[in-house]
Amino acid sequence: MSIESTTLTKNRIISELSKSPHGSLQEYIPIGKQAAALEPEFFAHLIAWDALHGQVRDAKVALPLVSLSVLAFPDELADNSFAHLAKLNPRELLKAYRFGLQLKLPSRMRRLRCLVSSYLQQLESEGHWQRVALQHRRVLKELYALTHTKPSDRVDKVLFKNDYTDAYLFQNVALLKTMSPSEAAGTILEKKIPFLIALGALGKKAKDPDVVLALINRMTPTELVTNTKMLERLGLKTNPALRGAFELALSKASTSKANVLKTTRAAEHIEDKELKTKLQGLQDKQLSSMSVEGNWLVLADKSGSMSAAIEASKLVAGTLAKLVKGQVWLVFFDTTPQSIDVTSLTLDQIRHVTQYIQAAGGTSIGCGLRWMLEMKKEVDGIAIVSDGCENTAPEFWSVYKQYSDAFGKEVPVYLYRFSSSDDPAYHYRFVTGHELQEFDCRVGFDYYSLPNLVATMRTNRYSLVDEIMSTKLLKLSDVLKNTFSSKKEVRKNASA
Amino acid sequence: MHQLEQFRNFNVDGLDIDELVALSLFGRQLRTEYEAHQLEEPDWVDIQLKSLRREIHARNADRLESRRVEINARLDSLKTPGQKKAELLKEREAIDKQLKAVGA
Protein backbone atom coordinates (compact mmCIF):
# COMPACT_ATOMS: atom_id res chain seq x y z
CA MET A 1 0.00 0.00 0.00
CA SER A 2 1.38 3.35 -1.04
CA ILE A 3 1.75 5.99 1.61
CA GLU A 4 0.10 8.46 -0.75
CA SER A 5 -3.51 9.40 -0.18
CA THR A 6 -6.11 7.39 -2.09
CA THR A 7 -9.20 9.25 -0.90
CA LEU A 8 -11.26 10.47 -3.81
CA THR A 9 -12.57 13.94 -3.06
CA LYS A 10 -14.44 16.12 -5.53
CA ASN A 11 -11.41 18.39 -5.78
CA ARG A 12 -9.16 15.42 -6.54
CA ILE A 13 -11.54 14.24 -9.24
CA ILE A 14 -11.29 17.68 -10.85
CA SER A 15 -7.53 17.91 -10.64
CA GLU A 16 -6.92 14.37 -11.87
CA LEU A 17 -9.29 14.60 -14.78
CA SER A 18 -8.11 18.03 -15.91
CA LYS A 19 -4.51 17.11 -16.61
CA SER A 20 -4.50 14.11 -18.88
CA PRO A 21 -2.04 14.09 -21.78
CA HIS A 22 -3.12 14.47 -25.41
CA GLY A 23 -4.15 11.35 -27.27
CA SER A 24 -4.29 9.06 -24.27
CA LEU A 25 -7.93 8.40 -23.42
CA GLN A 26 -6.89 5.44 -21.25
CA GLU A 27 -5.56 7.85 -18.63
CA TYR A 28 -9.10 8.88 -17.75
CA ILE A 29 -10.29 5.36 -16.93
CA PRO A 30 -8.98 4.64 -13.39
CA ILE A 31 -10.06 7.87 -11.67
CA GLY A 32 -13.03 8.41 -13.99
CA LYS A 33 -14.57 5.03 -13.20
CA GLN A 34 -14.13 5.52 -9.48
CA ALA A 35 -15.60 8.99 -9.66
CA ALA A 36 -18.59 7.90 -11.78
CA ALA A 37 -19.35 5.12 -9.30
CA LEU A 38 -18.84 7.12 -6.08
CA GLU A 39 -20.08 10.57 -7.13
CA PRO A 40 -22.34 9.95 -10.16
CA GLU A 41 -24.26 13.23 -9.95
CA PHE A 42 -21.12 15.30 -9.56
CA PHE A 43 -19.48 13.41 -12.41
CA ALA A 44 -22.45 14.10 -14.72
CA HIS A 45 -22.23 17.82 -13.92
CA LEU A 46 -18.47 17.70 -14.42
CA ILE A 47 -19.05 16.36 -17.95
CA ALA A 48 -21.39 19.29 -18.63
CA TRP A 49 -18.97 21.81 -17.10
CA ASP A 50 -15.98 20.43 -19.01
CA ALA A 51 -17.89 20.65 -22.29
CA LEU A 52 -18.33 24.38 -21.67
CA HIS A 53 -15.00 25.33 -20.10
CA GLY A 54 -12.52 22.52 -20.83
CA GLN A 55 -9.47 23.13 -23.01
CA VAL A 56 -8.54 19.48 -23.69
CA ARG A 57 -10.67 17.87 -26.38
CA ASP A 58 -9.80 14.36 -25.21
CA ALA A 59 -11.59 14.98 -21.92
CA LYS A 60 -14.77 15.85 -23.81
CA VAL A 61 -14.55 12.48 -25.56
CA ALA A 62 -13.38 10.35 -22.63
CA LEU A 63 -15.45 11.54 -19.66
CA PRO A 64 -18.92 10.71 -21.08
CA LEU A 65 -17.71 7.29 -22.20
CA VAL A 66 -16.03 6.46 -18.92
CA SER A 67 -19.30 7.30 -17.15
CA LEU A 68 -21.21 4.99 -19.51
CA SER A 69 -18.79 2.17 -18.79
CA VAL A 70 -19.87 2.13 -15.14
CA LEU A 71 -22.90 -0.11 -14.63
CA ALA A 72 -23.98 1.70 -11.48
CA PHE A 73 -24.10 5.06 -13.31
CA PRO A 74 -27.84 5.94 -13.31
CA ASP A 75 -29.71 5.98 -16.64
CA GLU A 76 -31.05 9.52 -16.24
CA LEU A 77 -27.49 10.78 -15.83
CA ALA A 78 -26.31 8.57 -18.69
CA ASP A 79 -28.67 10.55 -20.94
CA ASN A 80 -26.49 13.62 -20.24
CA SER A 81 -23.38 11.64 -21.26
CA PHE A 82 -25.04 10.54 -24.52
CA ALA A 83 -26.14 14.12 -25.20
CA HIS A 84 -22.57 15.38 -24.87
CA LEU A 85 -21.33 12.68 -27.22
CA ALA A 86 -23.95 13.77 -29.75
CA LYS A 87 -22.54 17.30 -29.60
CA LEU A 88 -19.07 16.23 -30.74
CA ASN A 89 -17.85 16.82 -34.27
CA PRO A 90 -17.60 13.69 -36.49
CA ARG A 91 -13.87 13.25 -35.86
CA GLU A 92 -14.28 13.31 -32.09
CA LEU A 93 -17.36 11.10 -32.31
CA LEU A 94 -15.40 8.47 -34.22
CA LYS A 95 -12.71 8.61 -31.55
CA ALA A 96 -15.42 8.23 -28.90
CA TYR A 97 -17.00 5.28 -30.69
CA ARG A 98 -13.68 3.51 -31.00
CA PHE A 99 -12.99 4.16 -27.32
CA GLY A 100 -16.44 2.78 -26.54
CA LEU A 101 -15.60 -0.40 -28.43
CA GLN A 102 -12.42 -0.65 -26.43
CA LEU A 103 -14.25 -0.15 -23.13
CA LYS A 104 -16.96 -2.64 -24.14
CA LEU A 105 -19.72 -0.54 -22.55
CA PRO A 106 -21.86 -3.07 -20.71
CA SER A 107 -25.49 -2.83 -21.84
CA ARG A 108 -24.93 0.61 -23.40
CA MET A 109 -22.98 -0.20 -26.56
CA ARG A 110 -26.15 -0.75 -28.58
CA ARG A 111 -27.50 2.62 -27.53
CA LEU A 112 -24.21 4.25 -28.50
CA ARG A 113 -24.45 2.64 -31.94
CA CYS A 114 -28.00 3.92 -32.33
CA LEU A 115 -26.88 7.36 -31.24
CA VAL A 116 -24.22 7.46 -33.97
CA SER A 117 -26.80 6.33 -36.55
CA SER A 118 -29.23 9.04 -35.44
CA TYR A 119 -26.39 11.56 -35.49
CA LEU A 120 -25.51 10.63 -39.08
CA GLN A 121 -29.13 10.80 -40.15
CA GLN A 122 -29.64 14.19 -38.58
CA LEU A 123 -26.50 15.45 -40.25
CA GLU A 124 -27.80 14.23 -43.62
CA SER A 125 -30.99 16.21 -43.16
CA GLU A 126 -29.18 19.43 -42.30
CA GLY A 127 -28.24 22.09 -44.84
CA HIS A 128 -24.55 22.08 -44.00
CA TRP A 129 -24.00 18.37 -44.65
CA GLN A 130 -21.77 18.99 -47.67
CA ARG A 131 -19.53 21.33 -45.70
CA VAL A 132 -19.15 18.78 -42.89
CA ALA A 133 -18.57 15.98 -45.41
CA LEU A 134 -15.94 18.03 -47.18
CA GLN A 135 -13.92 18.28 -43.99
CA HIS A 136 -14.69 14.88 -42.45
CA ARG A 137 -15.21 12.63 -45.46
CA ARG A 138 -13.02 9.74 -44.31
CA VAL A 139 -14.36 9.91 -40.78
CA LEU A 140 -17.99 9.88 -41.93
CA LYS A 141 -17.33 6.88 -44.16
CA GLU A 142 -15.85 5.06 -41.21
CA LEU A 143 -18.77 5.95 -38.93
CA TYR A 144 -21.29 4.67 -41.49
CA ALA A 145 -19.32 1.46 -41.90
CA LEU A 146 -18.68 0.84 -38.20
CA THR A 147 -22.30 1.32 -37.17
CA HIS A 148 -23.75 -0.37 -40.29
CA THR A 149 -25.85 2.71 -40.99
CA LYS A 150 -27.44 2.90 -44.43
CA PRO A 151 -26.65 6.25 -46.06
CA SER A 152 -29.22 8.11 -48.16
CA ASP A 153 -28.75 7.95 -51.96
CA ARG A 154 -27.24 11.44 -52.06
CA VAL A 155 -24.75 10.65 -49.31
CA ASP A 156 -23.96 7.26 -50.80
CA LYS A 157 -23.10 8.90 -54.14
CA VAL A 158 -20.71 11.45 -52.62
CA LEU A 159 -19.06 9.39 -49.90
CA PHE A 160 -18.87 5.92 -51.38
CA LYS A 161 -19.14 6.35 -55.17
CA ASN A 162 -17.22 9.60 -55.68
CA ASP A 163 -20.11 10.94 -57.76
CA TYR A 164 -20.27 14.70 -57.22
CA THR A 165 -23.07 15.56 -59.67
CA ASP A 166 -25.28 16.96 -56.93
CA ALA A 167 -22.52 18.21 -54.63
CA TYR A 168 -21.49 21.71 -55.73
CA LEU A 169 -18.88 22.13 -52.97
CA PHE A 170 -17.05 18.95 -53.95
CA GLN A 171 -17.18 20.07 -57.60
CA ASN A 172 -15.66 23.42 -56.69
CA VAL A 173 -12.84 21.83 -54.74
CA ALA A 174 -12.07 19.52 -57.66
CA LEU A 175 -11.93 22.51 -60.03
CA LEU A 176 -9.65 24.68 -57.86
CA LYS A 177 -6.55 23.33 -59.58
CA THR A 178 -7.72 24.37 -63.06
CA MET A 179 -8.93 27.86 -62.12
CA SER A 180 -6.88 31.05 -62.41
CA PRO A 181 -5.34 32.04 -59.03
CA SER A 182 -7.72 34.95 -58.60
CA GLU A 183 -10.75 32.82 -59.41
CA ALA A 184 -9.55 30.06 -57.09
CA ALA A 185 -9.10 32.62 -54.32
CA GLY A 186 -12.58 33.98 -54.96
CA THR A 187 -14.08 30.48 -54.91
CA ILE A 188 -12.39 29.67 -51.59
CA LEU A 189 -13.80 32.87 -50.12
CA GLU A 190 -17.26 32.63 -51.65
CA LYS A 191 -17.82 28.96 -50.86
CA LYS A 192 -16.02 29.16 -47.51
CA ILE A 193 -13.81 26.15 -48.30
CA PRO A 194 -11.84 25.10 -45.18
CA PHE A 195 -8.12 25.94 -45.23
CA LEU A 196 -6.76 22.40 -45.13
CA ILE A 197 -9.09 21.15 -47.88
CA ALA A 198 -8.26 24.10 -50.11
CA LEU A 199 -4.53 23.73 -49.46
CA GLY A 200 -4.64 20.06 -50.44
CA ALA A 201 -6.61 20.76 -53.62
CA LEU A 202 -4.56 23.73 -54.85
CA GLY A 203 -1.15 22.16 -55.37
CA LYS A 204 1.50 24.67 -56.46
CA LYS A 205 -1.12 27.37 -56.93
CA ALA A 206 -1.22 27.75 -53.15
CA LYS A 207 1.85 29.98 -53.42
CA ASP A 208 0.09 32.71 -55.40
CA PRO A 209 -0.49 35.84 -53.28
CA ASP A 210 -4.22 36.04 -54.12
CA VAL A 211 -4.67 32.44 -53.05
CA VAL A 212 -2.55 32.92 -49.90
CA LEU A 213 -4.82 35.81 -48.94
CA ALA A 214 -7.90 33.60 -49.34
CA LEU A 215 -6.24 30.84 -47.31
CA ILE A 216 -5.42 33.26 -44.47
CA ASN A 217 -9.06 34.26 -44.48
CA ARG A 218 -10.21 30.66 -44.11
CA MET A 219 -7.76 29.62 -41.38
CA THR A 220 -8.96 28.84 -37.86
CA PRO A 221 -7.06 30.64 -35.06
CA THR A 222 -4.97 27.51 -34.38
CA GLU A 223 -4.21 27.05 -38.08
CA LEU A 224 -3.20 30.70 -38.31
CA VAL A 225 -0.60 30.53 -35.54
CA THR A 226 0.77 27.14 -36.52
CA ASN A 227 1.18 28.20 -40.16
CA THR A 228 2.70 31.64 -39.59
CA LYS A 229 6.13 30.39 -40.58
CA MET A 230 4.78 29.05 -43.87
CA LEU A 231 3.00 32.36 -44.50
CA GLU A 232 6.23 34.21 -43.87
CA ARG A 233 7.87 32.18 -46.63
CA LEU A 234 4.96 33.00 -48.94
CA GLY A 235 5.52 36.76 -48.67
CA LEU A 236 3.52 37.77 -45.62
CA LYS A 237 5.96 40.53 -44.73
CA THR A 238 6.43 42.02 -48.18
CA ASN A 239 2.91 41.96 -49.63
CA PRO A 240 0.62 44.71 -48.20
CA ALA A 241 -2.58 42.79 -49.00
CA LEU A 242 -1.30 39.72 -47.15
CA ARG A 243 -0.20 41.89 -44.23
CA GLY A 244 -3.71 43.37 -44.06
CA ALA A 245 -5.36 39.94 -44.17
CA PHE A 246 -2.99 38.62 -41.50
CA GLU A 247 -3.73 41.57 -39.17
CA LEU A 248 -7.44 40.97 -39.56
CA ALA A 249 -7.04 37.24 -38.90
CA LEU A 250 -4.93 38.00 -35.80
CA SER A 251 -7.58 40.27 -34.36
CA LYS A 252 -10.20 37.55 -34.91
CA ALA A 253 -7.91 34.97 -33.26
CA SER A 254 -7.38 37.17 -30.20
CA THR A 255 -10.84 36.25 -28.89
CA SER A 256 -10.30 32.51 -29.39
CA LYS A 257 -9.82 30.33 -26.33
CA ALA A 258 -8.88 27.21 -28.27
CA ASN A 259 -5.41 25.85 -27.56
CA VAL A 260 -3.99 29.20 -26.47
CA LEU A 261 -0.62 27.74 -25.53
CA LYS A 262 -0.10 26.68 -29.14
CA THR A 263 0.46 30.37 -29.86
CA THR A 264 3.30 30.30 -27.32
CA ARG A 265 4.92 27.35 -29.06
CA ALA A 266 4.42 28.90 -32.51
CA ALA A 267 6.00 32.19 -31.35
CA GLU A 268 9.06 30.30 -30.12
CA HIS A 269 9.66 28.85 -33.58
CA ILE A 270 9.40 32.10 -35.50
CA GLU A 271 12.73 33.79 -36.15
CA ASP A 272 11.44 37.03 -37.61
CA LYS A 273 11.28 39.57 -34.78
CA GLU A 274 8.25 41.46 -36.08
CA LEU A 275 6.13 38.33 -36.54
CA LYS A 276 7.33 36.94 -33.22
CA THR A 277 6.13 40.10 -31.44
CA LYS A 278 2.80 39.89 -33.26
CA LEU A 279 2.26 36.32 -32.08
CA GLN A 280 3.35 37.21 -28.54
CA GLY A 281 0.83 40.08 -28.55
CA LEU A 282 -1.86 37.65 -29.71
CA GLN A 283 -0.90 35.13 -27.04
CA ASP A 284 -1.23 37.77 -24.32
CA LYS A 285 -4.68 38.76 -25.53
CA GLN A 286 -5.79 35.11 -25.63
CA LEU A 287 -4.43 34.43 -22.15
CA SER A 288 -6.07 37.51 -20.66
CA SER A 289 -9.46 36.27 -21.85
CA MET A 290 -9.24 33.17 -19.66
CA SER A 291 -7.54 34.28 -16.50
CA VAL A 292 -8.20 33.52 -12.82
CA GLU A 293 -9.61 36.17 -10.47
CA GLY A 294 -7.84 37.63 -7.44
CA ASN A 295 -4.25 38.30 -6.34
CA TRP A 296 -1.99 35.27 -6.32
CA LEU A 297 1.34 34.09 -5.09
CA VAL A 298 3.17 31.55 -7.25
CA LEU A 299 5.86 29.77 -5.22
CA ALA A 300 8.28 28.05 -7.56
CA ASP A 301 10.78 25.52 -6.24
CA LYS A 302 14.39 25.94 -7.40
CA SER A 303 15.94 23.59 -4.84
CA GLY A 304 18.51 20.95 -5.82
CA SER A 305 15.96 18.14 -5.83
CA MET A 306 14.13 19.87 -8.68
CA SER A 307 17.07 19.74 -11.11
CA ALA A 308 15.31 17.23 -13.39
CA ALA A 309 12.15 19.27 -13.56
CA ILE A 310 13.42 22.85 -13.21
CA GLU A 311 12.74 23.81 -16.83
CA ALA A 312 9.21 22.44 -16.75
CA SER A 313 8.50 24.05 -13.39
CA LYS A 314 9.80 27.43 -14.64
CA LEU A 315 7.55 27.13 -17.66
CA VAL A 316 4.56 26.23 -15.52
CA ALA A 317 5.29 28.97 -12.98
CA GLY A 318 5.66 31.58 -15.73
CA THR A 319 2.49 30.52 -17.52
CA LEU A 320 0.59 30.30 -14.27
CA ALA A 321 1.71 33.77 -13.31
CA LYS A 322 0.47 35.08 -16.64
CA LEU A 323 -2.90 33.34 -16.48
CA VAL A 324 -3.74 34.93 -13.15
CA LYS A 325 -5.51 38.31 -13.31
CA GLY A 326 -4.96 40.76 -10.42
CA GLN A 327 -1.51 41.13 -8.90
CA VAL A 328 0.89 38.22 -9.14
CA TRP A 329 4.11 37.63 -7.25
CA LEU A 330 6.36 34.91 -8.53
CA VAL A 331 8.73 33.79 -5.76
CA PHE A 332 11.46 31.26 -6.51
CA PHE A 333 12.80 29.53 -3.42
CA ASP A 334 15.33 27.04 -2.13
CA THR A 335 16.13 28.08 1.43
CA THR A 336 15.87 31.78 0.56
CA PRO A 337 13.26 33.53 -1.56
CA GLN A 338 13.86 35.40 -4.81
CA SER A 339 10.79 37.43 -5.71
CA ILE A 340 9.60 38.92 -8.97
CA ASP A 341 6.48 41.05 -9.34
CA VAL A 342 5.16 39.71 -12.63
CA THR A 343 1.91 41.66 -12.67
CA SER A 344 1.08 42.71 -16.25
CA LEU A 345 4.34 41.28 -17.63
CA THR A 346 3.97 39.32 -20.85
CA LEU A 347 4.63 35.59 -20.79
CA ASP A 348 7.76 36.12 -22.83
CA GLN A 349 9.04 38.77 -20.38
CA ILE A 350 8.41 36.38 -17.47
CA ARG A 351 10.31 33.64 -19.21
CA HIS A 352 13.13 36.05 -19.98
CA VAL A 353 13.55 37.16 -16.34
CA THR A 354 13.53 33.56 -15.11
CA GLN A 355 15.95 32.19 -17.69
CA TYR A 356 19.03 32.14 -15.42
CA ILE A 357 17.37 30.48 -12.43
CA GLN A 358 19.24 27.29 -11.53
CA ALA A 359 18.22 24.38 -9.31
CA ALA A 360 20.33 24.25 -6.12
CA GLY A 361 20.03 24.18 -2.32
CA GLY A 362 17.53 22.79 0.22
CA THR A 363 13.75 23.16 0.17
CA SER A 364 11.87 25.60 2.34
CA ILE A 365 8.50 26.40 0.78
CA GLY A 366 7.69 28.45 3.87
CA CYS A 367 10.45 31.01 3.21
CA GLY A 368 8.62 32.24 0.10
CA LEU A 369 5.42 32.82 2.06
CA ARG A 370 7.33 34.39 4.94
CA TRP A 371 8.74 36.95 2.52
CA MET A 372 5.16 37.85 1.53
CA LEU A 373 4.18 38.11 5.21
CA GLU A 374 7.10 40.39 6.01
CA MET A 375 6.36 42.58 3.00
CA LYS A 376 2.67 42.64 4.08
CA LYS A 377 1.52 41.52 0.65
CA GLU A 378 -1.99 40.12 0.70
CA VAL A 379 -3.04 37.40 -1.73
CA ASP A 380 -6.24 35.44 -2.40
CA GLY A 381 -4.62 32.18 -3.45
CA ILE A 382 -1.30 30.34 -3.47
CA ALA A 383 0.00 28.06 -6.21
CA ILE A 384 3.09 26.01 -5.37
CA VAL A 385 5.17 24.52 -8.20
CA SER A 386 7.33 21.96 -6.44
CA ASP A 387 7.92 18.33 -5.53
CA GLY A 388 6.46 19.15 -2.11
CA CYS A 389 9.50 17.64 -0.38
CA GLU A 390 10.05 20.34 2.21
CA ASN A 391 13.10 19.59 4.36
CA THR A 392 14.22 22.96 5.74
CA ALA A 393 12.64 25.49 8.13
CA PRO A 394 10.62 27.66 8.04
CA GLU A 395 7.95 25.14 7.18
CA PHE A 396 5.18 26.23 4.89
CA TRP A 397 2.23 25.26 7.07
CA SER A 398 3.50 27.04 10.16
CA VAL A 399 4.08 30.24 8.14
CA TYR A 400 0.69 29.69 6.48
CA LYS A 401 -0.95 29.81 9.92
CA GLN A 402 0.82 33.07 10.76
CA TYR A 403 -0.14 34.46 7.36
CA SER A 404 -3.80 33.46 7.82
CA ASP A 405 -3.85 35.07 11.27
CA ALA A 406 -2.23 38.25 9.96
CA PHE A 407 -4.74 38.77 7.12
CA GLY A 408 -7.75 37.11 8.76
CA LYS A 409 -8.41 34.58 5.98
CA GLU A 410 -7.33 31.10 4.93
CA VAL A 411 -6.48 31.27 1.25
CA PRO A 412 -6.66 28.12 -0.92
CA VAL A 413 -3.40 26.34 -1.73
CA TYR A 414 -2.69 24.45 -4.96
CA LEU A 415 0.31 22.20 -5.49
CA TYR A 416 1.63 21.51 -9.00
CA ARG A 417 3.64 18.45 -8.09
CA PHE A 418 6.78 17.65 -10.07
CA SER A 419 9.01 14.61 -9.82
CA SER A 420 12.21 14.78 -7.80
CA SER A 421 15.02 12.73 -6.38
CA ASP A 422 13.91 13.37 -2.78
CA ASP A 423 12.27 10.85 -0.45
CA PRO A 424 8.47 10.86 -1.10
CA ALA A 425 7.99 10.68 2.67
CA TYR A 426 8.74 14.44 2.78
CA HIS A 427 5.93 15.03 0.32
CA TYR A 428 3.60 12.81 2.32
CA ARG A 429 4.37 14.82 5.44
CA PHE A 430 3.80 18.06 3.53
CA VAL A 431 0.33 17.18 2.21
CA THR A 432 -1.06 15.09 5.07
CA GLY A 433 -3.59 16.79 7.31
CA HIS A 434 -3.76 19.97 5.25
CA GLU A 435 -6.30 21.25 2.79
CA LEU A 436 -4.55 21.63 -0.51
CA GLN A 437 -5.37 20.58 -4.04
CA GLU A 438 -2.68 18.69 -5.87
CA PHE A 439 -2.11 18.55 -9.62
CA ASP A 440 0.17 15.65 -10.36
CA CYS A 441 2.62 16.76 -13.07
CA ARG A 442 5.16 13.97 -12.50
CA VAL A 443 4.45 11.61 -15.38
CA GLY A 444 3.08 12.45 -18.80
CA PHE A 445 2.31 16.06 -17.95
CA ASP A 446 0.95 17.82 -20.98
CA TYR A 447 1.84 21.51 -21.24
CA TYR A 448 -1.30 22.19 -23.29
CA SER A 449 -3.52 21.01 -20.42
CA LEU A 450 -2.13 23.74 -18.15
CA PRO A 451 -4.91 26.26 -18.93
CA ASN A 452 -7.35 23.49 -18.02
CA LEU A 453 -5.75 23.14 -14.60
CA VAL A 454 -5.46 26.88 -14.03
CA ALA A 455 -9.11 27.30 -14.98
CA THR A 456 -10.01 25.14 -11.98
CA MET A 457 -8.18 27.41 -9.50
CA ARG A 458 -10.46 29.54 -7.34
CA THR A 459 -9.96 32.00 -4.51
CA ASN A 460 -12.72 30.20 -2.60
CA ARG A 461 -12.08 26.51 -1.85
CA TYR A 462 -15.53 25.19 -2.72
CA SER A 463 -16.74 27.64 -5.32
CA LEU A 464 -15.62 25.47 -8.23
CA VAL A 465 -17.57 22.47 -6.93
CA ASP A 466 -20.62 24.74 -6.58
CA GLU A 467 -20.03 26.10 -10.07
CA ILE A 468 -19.79 22.58 -11.51
CA MET A 469 -22.91 21.40 -9.70
CA SER A 470 -24.87 24.36 -11.02
CA THR A 471 -23.99 23.55 -14.65
CA LYS A 472 -27.13 22.35 -16.36
CA LEU A 473 -27.28 18.75 -17.55
CA LEU A 474 -28.21 18.09 -21.16
CA LYS A 475 -30.91 15.81 -22.49
CA LEU A 476 -30.22 13.76 -25.60
CA SER A 477 -33.58 14.84 -27.02
CA ASP A 478 -32.36 18.49 -26.88
CA VAL A 479 -29.36 17.67 -29.07
CA LEU A 480 -30.76 15.11 -31.50
CA LYS A 481 -34.23 15.52 -32.98
CA ASN A 482 -34.72 11.77 -33.42
CA THR A 483 -33.31 9.52 -30.75
CA PHE A 484 -33.77 5.81 -31.21
CA SER A 485 -33.20 2.94 -28.88
CA SER A 486 -32.88 0.24 -31.54
CA LYS A 487 -31.41 -0.21 -35.01
CA LYS A 488 -34.85 -1.22 -36.24
CA GLU A 489 -36.25 2.19 -35.38
CA VAL A 490 -33.31 3.92 -37.06
CA ARG A 491 -33.87 1.94 -40.27
CA LYS A 492 -37.60 2.58 -40.18
CA ASN A 493 -36.99 6.31 -39.90
CA ALA A 494 -34.44 6.23 -42.73
CA SER A 495 -36.85 4.49 -45.11
CA ALA A 496 -39.67 6.87 -44.12
CA MET B 1 0.23 55.51 -14.97
CA HIS B 2 -0.08 52.19 -16.73
CA GLN B 3 -1.19 53.84 -19.96
CA LEU B 4 1.62 56.39 -19.75
CA GLU B 5 4.14 53.56 -19.38
CA GLN B 6 2.58 51.80 -22.33
CA PHE B 7 2.70 54.98 -24.41
CA ARG B 8 6.38 55.50 -23.66
CA ASN B 9 7.46 51.90 -24.27
CA PHE B 10 5.10 50.35 -26.78
CA ASN B 11 6.18 48.07 -29.60
CA VAL B 12 3.85 48.59 -32.57
CA ASP B 13 4.18 44.96 -33.69
CA GLY B 14 2.58 43.62 -30.51
CA LEU B 15 -0.46 45.89 -30.71
CA ASP B 16 -3.62 45.61 -32.76
CA ILE B 17 -5.22 48.54 -34.57
CA ASP B 18 -7.64 49.30 -31.71
CA GLU B 19 -4.79 49.55 -29.21
CA LEU B 20 -2.80 51.76 -31.59
CA VAL B 21 -5.75 54.15 -31.99
CA ALA B 22 -6.33 54.20 -28.21
CA LEU B 23 -2.66 55.02 -27.58
CA SER B 24 -2.70 57.70 -30.25
CA LEU B 25 -5.73 59.30 -28.58
CA PHE B 26 -3.94 59.17 -25.22
CA GLY B 27 -0.83 60.78 -26.72
CA ARG B 28 -2.85 63.61 -28.24
CA GLN B 29 -4.62 64.26 -24.93
CA LEU B 30 -1.24 64.26 -23.22
CA ARG B 31 0.04 66.84 -25.69
CA THR B 32 -3.05 69.05 -25.13
CA GLU B 33 -2.58 68.81 -21.38
CA TYR B 34 1.08 69.90 -21.62
CA GLU B 35 -0.03 72.88 -23.71
CA ALA B 36 -2.83 73.76 -21.28
CA HIS B 37 -0.37 73.86 -18.38
CA GLN B 38 2.17 75.70 -20.53
CA LEU B 39 4.70 73.00 -19.83
CA GLU B 40 7.44 72.02 -22.23
CA GLU B 41 6.41 68.85 -24.02
CA PRO B 42 8.96 66.00 -23.72
CA ASP B 43 10.58 64.89 -27.00
CA TRP B 44 9.24 61.36 -26.74
CA VAL B 45 5.62 62.52 -27.00
CA ASP B 46 6.17 63.72 -30.56
CA ILE B 47 8.30 60.70 -31.51
CA GLN B 48 5.76 58.21 -30.19
CA LEU B 49 2.83 60.05 -31.75
CA LYS B 50 4.56 60.09 -35.14
CA SER B 51 5.34 56.39 -35.05
CA LEU B 52 1.77 55.61 -33.99
CA ARG B 53 0.35 57.71 -36.81
CA ARG B 54 2.68 56.08 -39.33
CA GLU B 55 1.70 52.59 -38.17
CA ILE B 56 -2.04 53.33 -38.16
CA HIS B 57 -1.82 54.72 -41.70
CA ALA B 58 0.24 51.74 -42.91
CA ARG B 59 -2.15 49.23 -41.36
CA ASN B 60 -5.17 50.99 -42.78
CA ALA B 61 -3.57 50.99 -46.25
CA ASP B 62 -2.80 47.26 -45.88
CA ARG B 63 -6.35 46.56 -44.78
CA LEU B 64 -7.79 48.40 -47.79
CA GLU B 65 -5.39 46.67 -50.18
CA SER B 66 -6.34 43.31 -48.71
CA ARG B 67 -10.03 44.04 -49.10
CA ARG B 68 -9.47 45.20 -52.69
CA VAL B 69 -7.70 41.95 -53.62
CA GLU B 70 -10.45 39.98 -51.90
CA ILE B 71 -13.19 41.79 -53.83
CA ASN B 72 -11.38 41.28 -57.14
CA ALA B 73 -10.98 37.58 -56.41
CA ARG B 74 -14.64 37.24 -55.51
CA LEU B 75 -15.67 39.06 -58.69
CA ASP B 76 -13.49 36.69 -60.71
CA SER B 77 -15.17 33.69 -59.16
CA LEU B 78 -18.61 35.09 -59.96
CA LYS B 79 -17.95 35.49 -63.69
CA THR B 80 -20.27 33.64 -66.07
CA PRO B 81 -18.82 31.33 -68.79
CA GLY B 82 -19.80 34.02 -71.34
CA GLN B 83 -17.74 36.67 -69.54
CA LYS B 84 -14.78 34.31 -69.27
CA LYS B 85 -15.02 33.52 -72.97
CA ALA B 86 -15.12 37.22 -73.88
CA GLU B 87 -12.03 37.86 -71.78
CA LEU B 88 -10.12 35.00 -73.40
CA LEU B 89 -11.06 36.26 -76.86
CA LYS B 90 -9.84 39.73 -75.95
CA GLU B 91 -6.56 38.31 -74.67
CA ARG B 92 -6.09 36.25 -77.84
CA GLU B 93 -6.68 39.38 -79.94
CA ALA B 94 -4.00 41.24 -78.01
CA ILE B 95 -1.54 38.35 -78.46
CA ASP B 96 -2.27 38.23 -82.19
CA LYS B 97 -1.48 41.93 -82.42
CA GLN B 98 1.80 41.49 -80.57
CA LEU B 99 2.77 38.55 -82.75
CA LYS B 100 2.10 40.64 -85.87
CA ALA B 101 4.22 43.42 -84.47
CA VAL B 102 7.22 41.10 -83.95
CA GLY B 103 6.69 39.70 -87.49
CA ALA B 104 5.88 36.11 -86.58
Write a brief structural summary.
Chain A has helices spanning 10-17, 29-38, 40-53, 57-68, 75-86, 90-103, 109-125, 129-147, 153-160, 168-175, 181-191, 195-202, 209-218, 221-226, 228-233, 240-253, 260-269, 273-288, 310-323, 347-353, 365-374, 396-407, 424-431, 450-454, 463-469, 476-479, 487-495, and strands spanning 296-301, 328-333, 337-341, 381-386, 413-417, 437-440. With 496 residues, chain A is α/β, with parallel strands linked by helices. Chain A is flat.
Protein architecture, described:
- The complex is a heterodimer of chains A (496) and B (104).
- Chain A is α/β, with parallel strands linked by helices.
- Chain A has three domains: 10-160; 168-288; 296-454, 3-Layer(aba) Sandwich (Rossmann fold).
- Chain A has helices at 10-17, 29-38, 40-53, 57-68, 75-86, 90-103, 109-125, 129-147, 153-160, 168-175, 181-191, 195-202, 209-218, 221-226, 228-233, 240-253, 260-269, 273-288, 310-323, 347-353, 365-374, 396-407, 424-431, 450-454, 463-469, 476-479, 487-495; strands at residues 296-301, 328-333, 337-341, 381-386, 413-417, 437-440.
- The longest helix of chain A has 19 residues, at 129-147.
- Chain A is flat.
- Chain B is mostly helical.
- Helices cover 81% and strands 0% of the residues of chain B.
- Chain B has helices spanning 2-9, 17-36, 43-77, 81-101.
- In chain B, helix 1 (2-9) packs across helix 2 and helix 2 (17-36) runs antiparallel to helix 3 (43-77).
- The longest helix of chain B is centred in the middle third of the chain and has 35 residues, at 43-77.
- Chain B starts with a helix and ends with a helix.
